[in-house]
Amino acid sequence: MSALRPLPQRAALFTCGVALCLAPGVAAAGEPHVDTGTTAWMLTSTAMVLLMVPGLAMFYGGLVRTKNVLGTMMHSFTAMALIGVMWTICGYAMCFGGSIGGVIGWSWDKFMLQGIDTAIMGEGVNAIPEYVYAMFQGKFAIIAPALIAGAFAERVKFLGYCVFITLWSLLIYNPLAHIIWGGGFLTGEAIDFAGGAVIHVSAGVAGLVAALTLGAREGYPRTAMHPSSMVLTLMGAGLLWVGWFGFNAGSAVSSSLKTAQALTVTQIAAASGALAWITIEALHHRKATSLGMVSGILAGLVAITPAAGDVLPAGALLLGAAASLACYLAIMTKNRLGYDDTLDVFGIHGVAGIIGALGLTFLLREVPAIGVLGQLWAQTKGVLVCGLYSGIGTFLLIKLVDRVVGLRTTRSEERAGLDQALHGEHGYGLLNLN
User: Fold this and answer.
1) What share of residues in the chain are helix, strand, coil (percent, to 5)?
2) CB 61 within 8 A of CB 69
3) Domain count across the chain
4) Is 5 a member of any domain?
5) Closest by CA position to 340, among listed 348, 351, 331
6) Domain contains 172
7) How many CB atoms lie within 10 A of CB 381?
8) Is the dihedral of CA 254, 256, 260, 261 positive or negative?
C-alpha cells in the first residue's frame, strides 16, 4: 500500500474536487454543456406560464353566471390535457421542425419528442435542454385555444369544444407559430416577441368569428347576466399578471439583460393599462370598477407581449394606456352592435394584440435596418396573416364541428346551465343559481 499524500496536497486535491462539483455549467465527461442558471430560469418561466391557465379559468369563471362556472373553467383545464397531449405527439414538430414551404414545420426526431432526449439548444450561457424549450412553448400552445372559449362561454357543448380546440391547435395555431417563430416565411421579419400576433390576435379574431357564427346566448342582451364572482375574477387576473412575467421574460430564452428588459416593461404596461382604464371609467361613469381594473391589466399585458424585448419603459407606458383606450372603445362598439362576445375576447385580446404588434414599430429601441415604414409593413403582414388565417380557418372549423358532433347547446341545456346539463355538477355547493 502506498503512503498517504502529505496533508497540504490532500487538502488541495479535496478543494479542487469540491470546486469542480460546485462550478455552474460544468458538465461531466461526455455530457453536453448545460447552463444551469438559464435552465433554472426557463424551468421557472414554464411553470409561471402554466399557472396562467388556472388563472384564466378563474378569470373567466368569475365573469359567467353561477350555473356555468364549472363548465367555463373546464374549458381552460381541458385545454391543458388535450393540447398537452397533442403538443407531445406532433405539435412541437409542426411548430419547430424543418420548414415545409415556409408555412408548416415537420421533423421526425421531434415527433413524440423522441429525438430530443439528450438534445441541448443554444450555446454558452444560453445552453438549455431542448425538453425545457419544448415544454415552455407547449404552454403557449395551451393558452391560445383556451382564450377563445371566453367568446362563446355559456353556450357550447363540451364534446364539440374538445374537438374544436384540438383541430384549431393543429390546423391554425401550429402553422402560425411556425410562420412567425419556427422558421416560416415571416420568421425574423415580423417582431412578435412573446405572441401578440400568434396568440392574441389569432385567438381574438377566432373568438369574434365564433361569437358571430354561433349567435348570442338565450336572452342576450335583454336578460341581465351577472358575474358569479368578481372576487374569483380579480384573483384570476392577479395570477395572470404574475404568470405573464414568465410568458414575456421567459421568451428571451436566456437569463440576461434582455430578460430583465422584458420583465420590466411587462410590469409597466400592466400598471399603465390598469390605471388608464379606471381613469377612463371615472371620467365616463363617475366610478372605477373592479371589472375595469382587470380589463385594463389584461389590455396592458396583451399589448406589451409582442414588444416586450424591444421597447423602453416609456414605450411600455404608452402601449398600456393606448391599449386600454382602444379596448374600452371596442367594447362600447360591441355593445352598440349587439353581438355576444361573452367575455370580450376580441375586444381585449384581439384589439390590444393589434395595438401592440403595430404600435411597437414607433417605439423600438433602435431604428430597424429596413426602416420604420419597412418594419410597419412587416408588422402589418404578421397581423394580417394571423388574423385572416385564424378568422377563415375558425369559421370553417366551427361549421365542420357543429355539423359532425354539434357545438351549440340546446335551449334546455342553456337554461339549466353547463354545470348541471353537461357535467352533472354545481360550482357552489348544491345550489343551482342563475
Assistant:
1) 70, 5, 25
2) yes
3) 1
4) no
5) 331
6) yes
7) 15
8) negative
Q: 377 is written with which cell numbers?
A: 409593413
In a domain, 41, yes or no: no
Q: What is the CATH number of the domain that holds 199?
A: 1.10.3430.10
For residue 123 the three cell numbers come to 450555446
Q: Are 202 and 176 in contact (CB under 8 A)?
A: yes
Domain containing 124: what range?
52-219+230-423
Contact 111, 90 (CB under 8 A): yes
Picking from 151, 152, 121, the residue whose alpha carbon sits closest to that of residue 137 is 121
- pLDDT tens digits for the chain (434 residues)? 334 444 444 444 444 444 444 444 444 445 678 999 999 999 999 999 999 999 999 999 999 999 999 999 999 999 999 999 999 999 999 999 999 999 999 999 999 999 999 999 998 889 999 999 999 999 999 999 999 999 999 999 999 999 999 999 999 999 999 999 999 999 999 999 999 999 999 999 999 999 999 999 999 999 989 999 999 999 999 999 999 999 999 999 999 999 999 999 999 999 999 999 999 999 999 999 999 999 999 999 999 999 999 999 999 999 999 999 999 999 999 999 999 999 999 999 999 999 999 999 999 999 999 999 999 999 999 999 999 999 999 999 999 999 999 999 999 999 999 999 999 998 987 555 55
Helices (H), 152-229: 158-168, 174-180, 202-214
Euclidean distance between CA atoms 59 and 232, whole angstroms: 6
Asked, for residue 354, whether it belongs to a domain, the answer is yes
Give the Cα separation of 338 and 220 in Å (integer): 9
Q: Return the C-alpha torsion angle 322, 328, 331, 332, nearest 10.
A: -120
